[in-house]
Each structure stands twice: as structure tokens, then as C-alpha cells.
Predict the 3D structure of the following.
Amino acid sequence: MGLTLGEGGTPLVKAPRMSATLGCELWLKCEGLNPTGSFKDRGMAVAVGRAAENGARAIVCASTGNTAASAATYAARAGLACVVLTPEGATATAKRAQAHAAGARVVEVRGTFDDALRLCRELAEQEGYVLVNSLNPDRIEGQKSVVGEIVEQLGRTPETIALPYGGGGNVSAVAATGVESRIVVGEAAERATTFASAIRIGAPAHRDNVHRLDVEVVALSEDELRDAWRRLAREEGVFCEPASAAGVAALVKAGVEGTAVAIVTGHGLKDAGAVDVSAAQVVDADIDAVLEVLQ
């Protein structure tokens, strides 16, 4: 067995309330239950494992958060050093914490994700460093496994598969499986500034490939992203980070019939700061006080 932390095998759960509203049979592939809390682990296990086999001394990645957490974790497992470049102040605290906890060297760049990725590509030209962003074909190969799981768990091929579109690596991986499903992908209309930090990528590395593929790209407003994110938690009990709701938001906007599977890419605890908790009320330890605020 190669490098693994038990990634894959994530639940496929039905979404009955949203199914009724959308007029379809909606299922949610909950990728936030991978070891580091996001879909990135599928590809990272393959990419880091092969880097180690080929004698790398360090892996390097640019990240808005999830890639950093996954790369650092699998590098630690493989006994490799990990260098992470992130845009200054642009990643969720939980994701930075994961990367630091696993011993990665985290460097914040005064610039965008695209600047960080450019620097990582230059660093990967140095001897001993391997780039593990989704430009690495091993990442794409590992991420393909989600489609086979969906078909196996559902017992058939869904009419539609939906997922977020950030850098485009996962979109490329899903499309590369040759699955006979309509593929709908949701991207933030305000790519460079969206509150959905995991897809805050102004110039997707896989843009040219995505737009050559047979996929339907749906541009989403900030309100459309927020609404889908909140509905998943409040109607279906699936708490994800905001970017992970982009596939569902795309289905809501574009329309869907038949059986659809939305790939929910990351757990909500990855970006808990996105949740407004200011509405919590404090009362005396008295039942009447509790009843009063509930009225």
C-alpha cells in the first residue's frame, strides 16, 4: 500500500429537503470527512507518495488553505519537508493551524494566490523540490477516485455532478474520468475578493483546460453562495466551508432534474470564522429567563 491516512470512502448522503425544493433527487458527497477535512487528500496522498518514492527532499505548494493543510500532513506522514506559500492574510485560521501543526514552513507572500503559485513553480525548479499543486498530474490522478465512489455508492451514474470551481484541478479530474454525467461547476463571480476563501483564485491554473471541457460553468454572486452554504447546514445538517457549497449553488441557479450529486469539498470547521455567532444571547440561570428569550 502506498502513502495513506485513510482518505476516500466519504459518505454519500441524500438531501431530502433540498431535493423537494429543487425538484430533483439530490445527494451530497461529503468530502469534508477526509483526514484533513477536504477533498485535497485524495490527490495529495498520490502526489506526496510519488515524490517520496522519487527521492524528493521537500514538497512545495501555493495555497488558499486546504492544499497547505493536506500537503503538510502528508509530507509529515512521508517524512518530507513541506514549504507552503500563501497570500498574506488570505487563508482561514484553521487551515493555517493545520499546516503549522504538521511542521510545514509557511511563508506569507505580499500578493495574490497567483503570485504565490508563480513563486512555487520557480522553487520547484530547484533540485529536491516537488510541486504538489494540482499542476502535478499525480494530484489529478488521485482526485479522480471520487467519481468511481459516487457511482458505486449510488448504484448508478447520476445525471448530474456538481462541484466548486476554484483553480480547476478538481473539475479537470472529474471530467477526466469520462463519466457520462452533466457536469455543472460553480465559481464566484467576484473571484479575487469572494468571502468563499477556498475559491478566491483570480487566475485559475486550469482555466484553459476547464473551458475546453464539456462542463457548464455557473458564475455565482456572493449572496447565492451564502444562501446555498446556509441551506446545506440548516436544511440538511451538512456544515461545510462556504466555497464547498458552490456546486449546490450552481444547481440552484442553473436548474436540475433527475439524480444529481453535489461534491461538498470541505468541512465547515475549516472556516468557522465565516459563521456569525454574535446572535448568541446570555441569560441568568433561570428557566423563566430562558423562556423569555425563546418567545
About this structure: The domain at 40-135 is CATH 3.40.50.1100 (Rossmann fold). The chain has two domains: 12-38+139-274, 40-135. The chain has a mean pLDDT of 95.
